[in-house]
Every structure is written in structure tokens, then in C-alpha cells.
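Researcher: We're teaching a course module on how sequence relates to structure. For the next exercise, students receive a sequence and then see the predicted structure as C-alpha cells, so they can try to spot secondary structure elements on their own. Here is the exercise chain.
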Amino acid sequence: MRNSDRLPPRQLPKRRSGRHRNPLSFDNWFGTPALIMAVPGPADQARGADGESVGARMADLVRAYRPEVSVSYGHTEGDEESLAKALAELSGDDDSPLSGVVVPLVTAPHEQVSAAIEAAVAASGASVRVSEGLGPHPMLAEALHLRLAEAGYVRADRMRLISVVARDTSMADGVVVGAVGGEGAVGAAGVTAVLLAARLGLTVLPADLESEASIGQTVEQLRQGGCRRPVIAPSALGPELPADELGALAERFGARLGTPLGADGP
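Model: And here is the predicted structure for the students to work with:
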């Protein structure tokens, strides 16, 4: 019987055995554009406690799903593992109009990251197309739910009853979805907040993590609605967060801080 208190684990696709062992064999064709993931900030800022970059972990996850695509990553700042180097290593193909697609590893529009990507692409002269960020998307709300559940702030399973009563006083009774990147990012976080609220059965509001006034106003709005245990859930992978200041800022407003999405979300 499934344990209803846990989110169902996501499994990587399994390769079949035999002569047709590659389930994506019909998708393979010469000239497929490479995928380059643009990681915000310098390389040292994107490393986790294990010393591995968020970009490296994301690249491994994508390769597991699409082994026929060449996947690489580069950071928008600094000389180490830079985006400029990743673009320079692209090999052109006369049969394909594009040599690569650059995907910003941000969950919402981010002006600074977008400007850095455009500058790197222009300097490289590579024939690439830049996509939008990763959100808003229902899977971001699912990943935020997972991070909050891992910390013990919310129920692990989706709310099935019309109730906002938490099981104990350690669980959140209101959530702030924190955005990084400006006004456009806050708008995208608002969509994610609606999706997350539908999953949790709690009041969920967006706020700008780079604005103390925005966080204070949003937390106060939750308190006026009866919230006593607010939690700030950063809707960001991590490298783009003002990590040094965020913990102290959350504590100043009497809120607990969730962990960034990282590279291990759904």
C-alpha cells in the first residue's frame, strides 16, 4: 500500500535490453542542436556542500532523459566553467540552422542573467537560440512542495480536504513564494504561488526576495489573515539567491526559511 504521507518518487527512465535497447532511437538524427544550460553567477557560488556545481547535476539529470542530445553548462560570471567557454566549444553543422540552444537555469525572468547570456552569445558569434527560464510551471510548485515537506513545514501529500489546520505547531500555516530577478520574476512567482496553494490548502503569496519591503509587506499580509507560522520558500535553484542576507532577513520578520530548489527537484 502506498504511504500517503510521502510524495511519489520520480524515477529516471530505464533503458531496455536487446537490439532496441535505446527507447529514444527514433529521435536520434544528425544535426540535433546541443543544449547549453546557463547557470547564474560564478562557479564557486553554484557549488553545493559536496563541491559539485548545480549545473553539473542538472546536466546529468537531462542526459538521463535525453541521451541523444549533447548537454553542457556554463556560468554567466567568472572565467571558471564559463558560458563563453561552453559556447566556444560548440561545433557547427552545415545541415542544421542551429548549433545549440541556451537555457537559463532560472525559474522566472531575470534581467541580469538575461543580459549576461546575451553578451556571451554575441561575443561568441555562435548560432544559438536562447530560451526562456524554467517557469512558471506546475512542476516548480511540486518541487517547492517537496522542499517544504522535506523540512517538515507542510504535509508531504496533497491536501484532500478543505482544511488549513496543521497537524502540529512546527508546520507552516502560510507560505511566501520568494522570487529573484525583478518585477517579472515576482509575476511568475505569483503563478507558482497559486499552484502551490492548490496543493497545500494554505494561503500562499509571492514576494521579491531582493526587497526587504516586499517580504515584510507579504509576511504582514499573511499575519493579518491569521498566519502565525509563515515560511519563505525560495522559488530559485540557488546560485541566484542573496544567500548571505536571506536567512537573517527571514528571522527579522519572524519567518522560517525553506531551502532553494537545487538540482534534485522533480
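Model: If you want an answer key for the exercise: The helical segments are 54-65, 83-88, 111-124, 138-150, 183-200, 212-224, 243-252. The first strand starts at residue 34 and ends at 39.
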